[in-house]
Amino acid sequence: MPVLFQIDRLRPLVAFFAVVIVAGAAMTAHAQQQEQPRRQQTQPQKPAAKPKPPAATTAKPATPPAAAKTEALPPSQVGIGTLAQFAFMVDPQTSSVLLFKDADKPMHPSSMAKMMTIHLVFEELAAGRIKLDTRFRVSERARNMGGSRMFVELGSEVTVEDLIKGMIILSGNDACVVVAEGLSGNEDSFAERMNTRARELGLVKTVFKNSSGWPAEGQYSTARDLAVLAWRTIDDFPKLYRYYSETNWTYNNIRQDNRNRLLKLTPGTDGLKTGHTEEGGYGQATSALRDGRRLILVVNGLASMAERAQETSRLMEWGFREFTNTTIFRAGDTVVEAPVWLGAQDKVPLVVGRAVQVTVPSGQAASPRVVARYDGPLPAPLVKGTKIGTAAVTLPDGRIIEYPLEVGTDVPRMGVIGRVTTMIQHYLFGWLS
């Protein structure tokens, strides 16, 4: 009875609000101006989709030359020992560093510096400022360059496409000078441009003095910086990157093979650039793709071309054999459901726009911690694809990588009566629905 009495007492109040709802217009305007209650949401994800086992590698690795016993090799700070003085291997899909040996110490970049010259040419092509059939004139300085050459002729005009092949396949120092002079007037100005772009790409421990990597005082880079440059080239210019996989080319009736032996030795290899100087030894920036998984490796300070090919192949095979990528969320998977304020539905899925993967030792299960962070409840209307917060993934090595969360489906606003009712419930009774 006391309860019934109290309800009876409330009936006039309920009737009053019914009048307000019928009136509608003024109350609706007021409701639309109200600030919805907000609080920081930190919710663990729903149970992740069951990881699919890694696909079997279909390519059959070629048999590399016999390598030294691993336990006898100079140790690395991360990963296995290597004869290389400097080494860095990264899985760009997960940003996992698999091999690190003095990778932040300065070293002579040699012809691996050409990757920046080529990167700038690719940028010019992508922006439409030059075309593959654009021609640059060969100066006397370019014609007289020593070392590896494309054998351009003095006074001739060479297409940009031929110069790209000359720099990548033939490692032509003369081709680099033609490009530098064609784009910037002289090589010194072009080197300044190389350094500006290096800063923009985050190559904080790199200084270029010329377009070819020809030995010069004050010119240096690191294995990590060159790996980042390779990574950006692959990501930014997927259609132009194909030039890095060509194994030979003939120019001016002279046929030359690509110095990157891994293109033929190690399955999946599709780039990038070798290098050699007396001061720095033999080095190489390499990338390979197998069953959708890519690895990037930079080594330097090896004793010979044969040792470079042998060691680089061994390290790449190790990276593919000993580690695998596990998918935690596929693109479009729901990470968490977030509450919606004044929406036609109470909750909306927050999804990842691309796959979330982690690199783990082969045969080892991955159990990363994933936390969704966003400000909620989310105010309707919501549009599918809108970026809302992040999913923070703690990797096995302790690093945290954040992936953007997106609204998984459209959510329109409630109707007038629904919005007014929700406002009444919230402000009078403290309920959230």
Describe the structure in your own words.
With 433 residues, the protein is an alpha+beta fold. It folds into two domains: 2-49 and 330-429, D-Ala-D-Ala carboxypeptidase, C-terminal domain (Peptidoglycan synthesis regulatory factor (PBP3), Domain 2), CATH 2.60.410; 70-322, Beta-lactamase, CATH 3.40.710. It has helices spanning 2-23, 25-33, 114-127, 140-143, 160-168, 173-184, 187-201, 223-236, 262-265, 305-322, 416-429; strands at 39-44, 86-91, 96-101, 135-137, 157-159, 248-251, 254-257, 269-277, 281-290, 293-302, 323-329, 334-341, 347-352, 356-361, 369-376, 378-379, 387-394, 400-407. It has a seven-stranded mixed sheet, with no helix packed on it. A five-stranded antiparallel sheet has the order 3-2-10-9-8, with helices on both faces. It starts with a helix and ends with a helix.
Task: Write down the oligomeric state.
Answer: single chain
Supply the helix-strand structural class.
alpha+beta
Can you count the helices? 11
| Largest beta-sheet characterization | 7 strands, mixed
CATH A-level architecture of the largest domain: 3-Layer(aba) Sandwich
Mean pLDDT: 83
Global outline: globular
Count of β-strands: 18
H/E series: HHEEEHEHEHHHHEEHEEEHEEEEEEEEH
- CATH topology of the largest domain: the name is Beta-lactamase
